[in-house]
Amino acid sequence: MPTPPRAPATGPDSQAGADGDTAPATVCYLGAIGRSGSTLVSRVLGSLPGAVSVGELCWIWTYGVLRNRTCGCGQPFLECPFWTGVGQRAFGGWDGVDAGRANDLRRSVTRHRHTPELLVRPVGRFAHDVDEYVGLLGPLYRAISAESGGAVVIDNSKQPEVALVARQASGVDLRVLHLVRRSHGVAYSWTKHVARADKDGREMLRKSPAKVCAGWLSDNALFETMGRTGSPRLLVRYEDFVRAPRDATRDIAAFLDLTVTEEELPFEGPTSVRLATDHSVWGNPMRLQTGAIPLRPDEAWREGLSARDRRVVTALTWPGLLRYGYRD
Ligand SMILES: [Zn+2]
């Protein structure tokens, strides 16, 4: 299996963390299009011994360091003890990193249009920016793991562009959990009005079914490509996860080299999971829910999606529907 390209040890990465911690980190990167159930899956995985869920880590600069939004634990990011410890380990404190610059790099480097360059070898100024951003990610991932006692980091950033950059971070063993949900369910979810408590009640973004389908096809293809170009990848269907969560979680734990006993699985009976507080830096508002959460296949699209939109989604995504076994 070929090894993905590695960035040179420049910038903060050359210091291997402000406290000299050089222990490598295993990262479970959830690859999925938004509204595929990845928040639930990442939180279930983060509740396992030896794992820590941090939500959509790619937004740490925007919503964490710069805007100080609410962490999953309920504290403002900069007051959360967990993230304070991470910042200290990685950069000698959050004052030790130029978060504005990091955010500019995140925005410029992880654009969808850059995926061809990220899949091969970036050149010129773009290559320099990629290396600079990658130089921040290595210490960050390693610090999260170290702050959690060497845990596997569950990163729910989802976007393939972000994964293509993150897998280059030094001292990071990035494995892709490729989560697929039926395109009709994803498309319907993007049409719904959802207010988010962690953004002053503003609504989550909505997209047309046609636009969602284009992303569904391209993102799934990119995660398959990552699997063929050096990144360990496990494919899981969301529908299978919620129907048989114990089996799916055991399979994923094995993929991550986590040893988990039956008693350590967070499920209550066949249809419920108990979730504790975590330190998600950003993500779907569901990240803030704790306690018993029902697990059931969400088939609301069968009633909610108009006949026209249903035909549009089928027409646009049928190769993927067949590939992933959605035949009914
Ligand atoms: Zn927190």
TrEMBL record:
Query: Which species is this UniProt entry from?
Result: Nocardioides taihuensis
Region annotation Disordered: where it falls in the sequence: 1-20
Q: Where is the Sulfotransferase domain?
A: 172-265
**InterPro entries attached to this UniProt entry:** P-loop_NTPase (IPR027417), Sulfotransferase_dom (IPR000863)
Protein name, per record? Sulfotransferase domain-containing protein
What positions belong to coiled-coil segments? Answer: none
